[in-house]
Amino acid sequence: MGRRLRRLIGTAWAWDSALTVPGGADVSLGAVTHVGVRADRTRRGVLSTLMRAQLTDLAERGAVAAGLHATEAAIYGRFGYGAATLGRDLRIQRARARVRDDAPAGGRVELHDLDGLIGRVPEVYPRAATRPGMLARPDAWWGMMRSHLTRPSATRPQGVTHEGPDGIDGFAVYTVERTKGDQAKLTVVDLHTANTAAAAGLWRYLLSVDLVDTIEAALRPVDEPLDLLLTDPRAVSTTDLGDDLWLRLIDVPAALAARTYGDEQLVAR
Ligand SMILES: CC(C)(COP(=O)(O)OP(=O)(O)OC[C@H]1O[C@@H](n2cnc3c(N)ncnc32)[C@H](O)[C@@H]1OP(=O)(O)O)[C@@H](O)C(=O)NCCC(=O)NCCS
């Protein structure tokens, strides 16, 4: 009897992560990524099978929710996911943008290559990523970011940290590329700050990088007060407002009970 050859035809990965909920608590979350089915095996239920197995596995491991960033928005609703947070894509005209004189100043901004940055900021990230809807980044996440930003086709990334009285309290990763003619664009790839001084210091730095005409950043928090930090808020335009994190609740009572609103708490009955 001949043996059947087994081939990989689809994948769905999940990292152990955590989700910050309103009130500041964290719940365990499976961060779903690398979802794909081989092109010659699509539309015959492979993704549906993977999603069912993954959600069962996450439930058994005690995850309260699963989360992902959807490349295509039409796919995940049928598996119980919904868009949970919005992100703002923005473009800044550098020539018009100046940080207000009364914005906090005095911190130290330091340049690093990507490895230097990754060596310094994982312990800073939890203090900076406190908005509801933010995900914890396990150690492996930073390695994945490194591989992605240093893939052969990528523009070389640059890192920068902000140091306040209590040490590093913010960081950014960015790239600069020439577009057409003399035009150059700075793209903010990642930026997290633990306080307003760090936000002001890092944006002040990013706006001061020489030979740059426009600055772009994708999926920034919608309540980031960047416009108010500038003398001319119209230097910033919103180029898109779209879904960011998609969530699928797995343990609904635990997800609701983790949220707090001042002294109030939601309970499932
Ligand atoms: C998208 C993808 C994962 C779907 O896998 P699949 O095995 O073909 O999906 P299934 O056969 O299990 O289909 C499940 C359902 O989703 C629907 N669906 C699948 N792909 C879809 C798409 N691109 N847009 C809208 N609906 C889609 C199917 O029609 C089916 O609907 P039904 O439940 O009403 O019958 C696969 O086509 C793929 O890998 N595409 C390229 C990479 C990609 O887009 N990955 C997603 C990253 S977010």
Helicity level? 10-25%
Would you tell me which CATH topology of the largest domain applies? Aminopeptidase
Span between termini: 57 Å
Major beta-sheet overview: 7 strands, mixed
Compute the number of strand runs. Answer: 14
Enumerate the spans where pLDDT stays under 50 for 5 or more consecutive residues: none
3D shape: globular
| Count of all domains | 2
Defining traits:
single chain, 269 residues, alpha+beta, Aminopeptidase, 7-stranded mixed β-sheet, 5-stranded mixed β-sheet, 14 strands, binds coenzyme A
What does this structure look like?
With 269 residues, this protein is α+β, with helices and mostly antiparallel strands. It folds into 2 domains: 96 residues, Aminopeptidase (3-Layer(aba) Sandwich), CATH 3.40.630; 119 residues, Aminopeptidase. The protein is 22% helix and 35% strand. The strands form 3 sheets. A 7-stranded mixed β-sheet has the order 6-7-8-9-10-5-11. The longest helix is centred in the N-terminal third of the chain and has 15 residues. The model has no long low-confidence stretch (mean pLDDT 95). Bound molecules: coenzyme A.
